[in-house]
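Sequence only, no structure available. Ideas?
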Amino acid sequence: MIYTPRAGDAQLLSFSRELVRDALKILRDSDHIARAQRVRDGLVAVEPVRGEGDPV
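Reply:
I predicted one. Tokens follow.
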């Protein structure tokens, strides 16, 4: 099958590139939020330190 360009192909490609660009910008801007959530989840996952007299 031989590809023949159609009128809407260039516009569709342009829209796709714009969507990808916007999505990557959102990911870059949200990195500090994701990092903070990972730190929070790591702190919550740590079990509290128990003293010698604390019940198990």
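Helices lie at 7-29, 31-45.
Hope that gets you unstuck.
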